[in-house]
Amino acid sequence: MKKVILTYGTFDLFHTGHLSLLNRLKALGDELVVGVTTDEFNALRGKQTIFGFEDRIQIVRNLKCVDRAISLQNGEQKADDIRSYGVSIFGMGDDWEGRFDDLRVHCEVIYLPRTENISSTQIRKLLEGLGRTYVSDPGKALEPAASIVGPFDGKVARKDER
Amino acid sequence: MKKVILTYGTFDLFHTGHLSLLNRLKALGDELVVGVTTDEFNALRGKQTIFGFEDRIQIVRNLKCVDRAISLQNGEQKADDIRSYGVSIFGMGDDWEGRFDDLRVHCEVIYLPRTENISSTQIRKLLEGLGRTYVSDPGKALEPAASIVGPFDGKVARKDER
Asked: pTM surpassing 0.90?
Protein backbone atom coordinates (compact mmCIF):
# COMPACT_ATOMS: atom_id res chain seq x y z
CA MET A 1 0.00 0.00 0.00
CA LYS A 2 1.16 3.50 -0.85
CA LYS A 3 2.64 5.35 2.13
CA VAL A 4 1.54 9.00 2.26
CA ILE A 5 3.35 11.69 4.28
CA LEU A 6 1.74 15.00 5.25
CA THR A 7 3.39 18.21 6.46
CA TYR A 8 2.40 21.85 6.87
CA GLY A 9 4.30 25.09 6.54
CA THR A 10 4.33 28.70 5.45
CA PHE A 11 7.40 28.44 3.18
CA ASP A 12 8.02 32.16 2.91
CA LEU A 13 11.38 33.09 1.33
CA PHE A 14 11.96 29.50 0.26
CA HIS A 15 15.40 28.17 1.26
CA THR A 16 17.31 24.90 1.54
CA GLY A 17 16.19 24.39 5.15
CA HIS A 18 12.65 24.00 3.83
CA LEU A 19 13.87 21.84 0.94
CA SER A 20 15.91 19.53 3.14
CA LEU A 21 12.96 18.92 5.45
CA LEU A 22 10.63 18.16 2.51
CA ASN A 23 13.15 15.80 0.87
CA ARG A 24 13.70 13.92 4.13
CA LEU A 25 9.95 13.60 4.68
CA LYS A 26 9.42 12.32 1.14
CA ALA A 27 12.14 9.69 1.70
CA LEU A 28 9.98 8.15 4.45
CA GLY A 29 7.26 7.08 2.03
CA ASP A 30 5.85 7.21 -1.49
CA GLU A 31 3.85 10.40 -1.69
CA LEU A 32 4.35 13.79 -0.02
CA VAL A 33 1.37 16.10 0.55
CA VAL A 34 2.29 19.62 1.68
CA GLY A 35 -0.18 22.06 3.21
CA VAL A 36 0.75 25.72 2.74
CA THR A 37 -0.80 28.27 5.13
CA THR A 38 -3.14 30.78 3.50
CA ASP A 39 -2.65 34.51 4.01
CA GLU A 40 -5.93 34.63 5.95
CA PHE A 41 -4.78 31.93 8.34
CA ASN A 42 -1.46 33.72 8.82
CA ALA A 43 -3.28 36.99 9.51
CA LEU A 44 -5.35 35.29 12.20
CA ARG A 45 -2.10 34.10 13.78
CA GLY A 46 -0.63 37.62 13.58
CA LYS A 47 1.95 36.48 11.09
CA GLN A 48 2.99 38.48 8.04
CA THR A 49 4.87 37.01 5.10
CA ILE A 50 6.94 38.61 2.36
CA PHE A 51 5.32 36.49 -0.34
CA GLY A 52 1.60 35.86 -0.67
CA PHE A 53 -0.06 32.45 -0.67
CA GLU A 54 -0.06 31.94 -4.44
CA ASP A 55 3.68 32.63 -4.68
CA ARG A 56 4.46 30.41 -1.72
CA ILE A 57 2.40 27.43 -2.88
CA GLN A 58 3.68 27.73 -6.47
CA ILE A 59 7.24 27.06 -5.39
CA VAL A 60 6.25 24.14 -3.15
CA ARG A 61 4.10 22.62 -5.91
CA ASN A 62 6.98 22.79 -8.39
CA LEU A 63 9.42 20.77 -6.28
CA LYS A 64 10.31 17.26 -7.43
CA CYS A 65 9.68 15.81 -3.97
CA VAL A 66 6.17 17.24 -3.65
CA ASP A 67 3.30 15.19 -5.06
CA ARG A 68 0.47 17.44 -3.95
CA ALA A 69 0.32 20.95 -2.50
CA ILE A 70 -2.86 21.95 -0.66
CA SER A 71 -3.91 25.03 1.29
CA LEU A 72 -3.89 25.04 5.07
CA GLN A 73 -6.77 27.33 5.91
CA ASN A 74 -7.16 26.80 9.63
CA GLY A 75 -6.03 24.67 12.54
CA GLU A 76 -9.08 22.45 12.38
CA GLN A 77 -8.55 20.68 9.06
CA LYS A 78 -5.70 18.42 10.15
CA ALA A 79 -7.71 15.27 10.95
CA ASP A 80 -9.73 15.73 7.75
CA ASP A 81 -6.53 16.03 5.68
CA ILE A 82 -5.15 12.86 7.26
CA ARG A 83 -8.31 10.99 6.34
CA SER A 84 -8.77 12.55 2.87
CA TYR A 85 -5.27 11.78 1.68
CA GLY A 86 -4.82 8.43 3.47
CA VAL A 87 -1.87 9.76 5.44
CA SER A 88 0.41 7.29 7.28
CA ILE A 89 2.91 9.79 8.71
CA PHE A 90 2.48 13.40 9.73
CA GLY A 91 5.88 15.10 9.97
CA MET A 92 7.19 18.50 11.04
CA GLY A 93 10.54 20.10 11.93
CA ASP A 94 11.57 19.52 15.54
CA ASP A 95 11.07 23.17 16.38
CA TRP A 96 7.42 22.02 16.56
CA GLU A 97 8.22 19.05 18.83
CA GLY A 98 5.15 17.92 20.74
CA ARG A 99 2.80 20.47 19.17
CA PHE A 100 1.07 17.92 16.93
CA ASP A 101 0.97 14.96 19.29
CA ASP A 102 -2.85 15.06 19.38
CA LEU A 103 -2.76 13.69 15.81
CA ARG A 104 -1.29 10.39 17.08
CA VAL A 105 -4.84 9.00 17.31
CA HIS A 106 -5.01 9.31 13.49
CA CYS A 107 -1.50 8.39 12.24
CA GLU A 108 2.18 8.29 13.13
CA VAL A 109 3.57 11.73 14.09
CA ILE A 110 7.27 12.52 13.75
CA TYR A 111 9.52 15.54 14.23
CA LEU A 112 12.69 15.74 12.13
CA PRO A 113 15.78 17.74 13.10
CA ARG A 114 16.02 21.12 11.43
CA THR A 115 19.22 21.67 9.46
CA GLU A 116 21.29 24.40 11.06
CA ASN A 117 24.08 24.90 8.56
CA ILE A 118 22.21 27.58 6.65
CA SER A 119 21.44 29.83 9.55
CA SER A 120 24.84 29.88 11.20
CA THR A 121 26.37 31.59 8.17
CA GLN A 122 23.49 33.97 8.03
CA ILE A 123 23.69 34.86 11.69
CA ARG A 124 27.22 35.99 10.92
CA LYS A 125 25.91 38.15 8.10
CA LEU A 126 23.29 39.51 10.45
CA LEU A 127 25.91 40.59 12.97
CA GLU A 128 28.00 42.22 10.26
CA GLY A 129 24.98 43.92 8.74
CA LEU A 130 23.71 45.34 11.99
CA GLY A 131 27.06 46.34 13.40
CA ARG A 132 26.07 44.43 16.54
CA THR A 133 23.60 47.11 17.53
CA TYR A 134 20.46 45.08 17.76
CA VAL A 135 21.85 41.78 18.92
CA SER A 136 19.83 41.81 22.13
CA ASP A 137 16.63 41.76 20.09
CA PRO A 138 17.29 40.30 16.63
CA GLY A 139 13.62 39.71 15.86
CA LYS A 140 12.79 43.38 16.19
CA ALA A 141 15.86 44.44 14.24
CA LEU A 142 14.82 42.26 11.33
CA GLU A 143 11.28 43.53 10.89
CA PRO A 144 12.13 46.37 8.49
CA ALA A 145 14.41 44.05 6.53
CA ALA A 146 11.60 41.57 6.09
CA SER A 147 9.32 44.23 4.69
CA ILE A 148 11.76 45.38 2.03
CA VAL A 149 13.77 42.41 0.89
CA GLY A 150 11.09 41.31 -1.56
CA PRO A 151 11.59 44.11 -4.07
CA PHE A 152 15.37 43.94 -3.70
CA ASP A 153 15.20 40.57 -5.29
CA GLY A 154 12.09 40.93 -7.38
CA LYS A 155 12.53 44.15 -9.23
CA VAL A 156 14.78 46.94 -8.04
CA ALA A 157 17.97 44.99 -8.49
CA ARG A 158 16.60 42.65 -11.12
CA LYS A 159 19.52 42.97 -13.47
CA ASP A 160 22.11 42.45 -10.77
CA GLU A 161 20.39 39.42 -9.56
CA ARG A 162 21.53 37.03 -12.25
CA MET B 1 15.42 14.58 -31.68
CA LYS B 2 15.37 15.81 -28.10
CA LYS B 3 15.19 19.63 -27.84
CA VAL B 4 17.47 20.99 -25.10
CA ILE B 5 17.08 24.48 -23.58
CA LEU B 6 19.87 26.22 -21.66
CA THR B 7 19.65 29.20 -19.32
CA TYR B 8 21.87 30.84 -16.69
CA GLY B 9 21.15 32.68 -13.47
CA THR B 10 22.12 33.38 -9.88
CA PHE B 11 18.77 32.43 -8.35
CA ASP B 12 19.39 34.08 -5.00
CA LEU B 13 16.31 34.28 -2.74
CA PHE B 14 14.37 32.00 -5.05
CA HIS B 15 10.94 33.37 -6.01
CA THR B 16 8.13 32.78 -8.49
CA GLY B 17 9.68 35.17 -11.02
CA HIS B 18 12.56 32.72 -11.35
CA LEU B 19 10.16 29.77 -11.38
CA SER B 20 7.92 31.23 -14.06
CA LEU B 21 10.87 31.89 -16.35
CA LEU B 22 12.20 28.33 -15.89
CA ASN B 23 8.78 26.76 -16.48
CA ARG B 24 8.26 28.80 -19.66
CA LEU B 25 11.71 27.87 -20.93
CA LYS B 26 11.10 24.19 -20.24
CA ALA B 27 7.82 24.38 -22.19
CA LEU B 28 9.82 25.26 -25.33
CA GLY B 29 11.50 21.85 -25.47
CA ASP B 30 12.18 18.53 -23.80
CA GLU B 31 15.06 19.11 -21.44
CA LEU B 32 16.06 22.17 -19.39
CA VAL B 33 19.68 22.69 -18.35
CA VAL B 34 20.23 25.51 -15.84
CA GLY B 35 23.63 27.04 -15.09
CA VAL B 36 23.92 28.60 -11.64
CA THR B 37 26.64 31.21 -11.08
CA THR B 38 29.33 30.18 -8.59
CA ASP B 39 30.23 32.44 -5.66
CA GLU B 40 33.67 32.99 -7.21
CA PHE B 41 32.17 34.17 -10.48
CA ASN B 42 29.79 36.47 -8.60
CA ALA B 43 32.70 37.90 -6.60
CA LEU B 44 34.54 38.67 -9.83
CA ARG B 45 31.45 40.54 -11.01
CA GLY B 46 31.25 42.43 -7.71
CA LYS B 47 28.02 40.73 -6.85
CA GLN B 48 27.13 39.45 -3.39
CA THR B 49 24.35 36.96 -2.71
CA ILE B 50 22.46 36.10 0.45
CA PHE B 51 22.72 32.37 -0.21
CA GLY B 52 25.88 30.56 -1.27
CA PHE B 53 26.26 28.50 -4.44
CA GLU B 54 25.37 25.14 -2.87
CA ASP B 55 22.11 26.50 -1.44
CA ARG B 56 21.21 28.24 -4.70
CA ILE B 57 21.89 25.24 -6.96
CA GLN B 58 20.11 22.82 -4.58
CA ILE B 59 16.82 24.62 -5.00
CA VAL B 60 17.17 24.84 -8.79
CA ARG B 61 18.12 21.14 -9.02
CA ASN B 62 15.05 20.13 -7.02
CA LEU B 63 12.52 21.80 -9.34
CA LYS B 64 10.31 19.58 -11.47
CA CYS B 65 11.06 21.59 -14.62
CA VAL B 66 14.85 21.32 -14.27
CA ASP B 67 16.53 18.27 -15.78
CA ARG B 68 20.10 19.24 -15.04
CA ALA B 69 21.71 21.97 -12.93
CA ILE B 70 25.32 22.90 -13.67
CA SER B 71 27.71 25.52 -12.34
CA LEU B 72 28.40 28.70 -14.31
CA GLN B 73 31.99 29.44 -13.41
CA ASN B 74 32.87 32.17 -15.87
CA GLY B 75 31.65 34.01 -18.93
CA GLU B 76 33.71 31.86 -21.31
CA GLN B 77 31.99 28.50 -20.94
CA LYS B 78 28.81 29.35 -22.84
CA ALA B 79 29.75 27.92 -26.25
CA ASP B 80 31.17 24.80 -24.58
CA ASP B 81 27.93 24.28 -22.64
CA ILE B 82 25.87 24.63 -25.82
CA ARG B 83 28.00 21.97 -27.50
CA SER B 84 28.29 19.64 -24.49
CA TYR B 85 24.57 19.49 -23.81
CA GLY B 86 23.38 19.63 -27.43
CA VAL B 87 21.48 22.84 -26.80
CA SER B 88 18.90 24.01 -29.37
CA ILE B 89 17.70 27.16 -27.57
CA PHE B 90 19.51 29.49 -25.20
CA GLY B 91 16.98 31.57 -23.25
CA MET B 92 17.13 34.42 -20.73
CA GLY B 93 14.74 36.98 -19.22
CA ASP B 94 14.27 40.07 -21.39
CA ASP B 95 16.13 42.24 -18.88
CA TRP B 96 19.13 40.66 -20.65
CA GLU B 97 17.81 41.50 -24.15
CA GLY B 98 20.64 41.52 -26.68
CA ARG B 99 23.35 40.59 -24.21
CA PHE B 100 23.70 37.00 -25.47
CA ASP B 101 23.24 37.62 -29.18
CA ASP B 102 26.79 36.45 -29.90
CA LEU B 103 25.58 32.90 -29.15
CA ARG B 104 23.37 32.99 -32.27
CA VAL B 105 26.21 31.35 -34.22
CA HIS B 106 25.74 28.27 -32.01
CA CYS B 107 21.97 27.99 -31.42
CA GLU B 108 18.69 29.91 -31.27
CA VAL B 109 18.76 32.72 -28.66
CA ILE B 110 15.54 34.02 -27.11
CA TYR B 111 14.58 36.51 -24.41
CA LEU B 112 11.32 35.92 -22.53
CA PRO B 113 9.32 38.66 -20.77
CA ARG B 114 9.90 38.85 -17.04
CA THR B 115 6.77 38.54 -14.93
CA GLU B 116 6.06 41.78 -13.11
CA ASN B 117 3.19 40.83 -10.85
CA ILE B 118 5.44 39.85 -7.97
CA SER B 119 7.43 43.02 -7.78
CA SER B 120 4.63 45.55 -7.95
CA THR B 121 3.24 44.34 -4.64
CA GLN B 122 6.69 44.31 -3.20
CA ILE B 123 7.51 47.80 -4.34
CA ARG B 124 4.54 48.87 -2.26
CA LYS B 125 5.95 47.04 0.71
CA LEU B 126 9.28 48.70 0.07
CA LEU B 127 7.74 52.15 0.18
CA GLU B 128 5.88 51.36 3.38
CA GLY B 129 8.94 49.82 4.96
CA LEU B 130 11.23 52.69 4.14
CA GLY B 131 8.78 55.46 4.92
CA ARG B 132 9.64 56.89 1.49
CA THR B 133 13.02 58.06 2.73
CA TYR B 134 15.26 56.26 0.32
CA VAL B 135 13.09 56.23 -2.77
CA SER B 136 15.58 58.22 -4.80
CA ASP B 137 18.10 55.40 -4.41
CA PRO B 138 16.30 52.14 -3.64
CA GLY B 139 19.28 49.94 -4.45
CA LYS B 140 21.39 51.58 -1.77
CA ALA B 141 18.56 51.51 0.74
CA LEU B 142 18.19 47.78 0.31
CA GLU B 143 21.79 46.76 0.87
CA PRO B 144 21.52 46.34 4.66
CA ALA B 145 18.24 44.51 4.29
CA ALA B 146 19.83 42.05 1.91
CA SER B 147 22.59 41.29 4.37
CA ILE B 148 20.26 40.43 7.23
CA VAL B 149 17.16 38.86 5.80
CA GLY B 150 18.72 35.39 5.70
CA PRO B 151 18.65 34.74 9.44
CA PHE B 152 15.19 36.27 9.79
CA ASP B 153 13.88 33.41 7.77
CA GLY B 154 16.43 30.76 8.58
CA LYS B 155 16.85 30.84 12.31
CA VAL B 156 15.96 33.85 14.40
CA ALA B 157 12.25 33.64 13.70
CA ARG B 158 12.24 29.93 12.92
CA LYS B 159 9.20 29.12 14.96
CA ASP B 160 7.16 32.00 13.60
CA GLU B 161 8.00 31.05 10.13
CA ARG B 162 5.56 28.19 9.69
From this structure: no
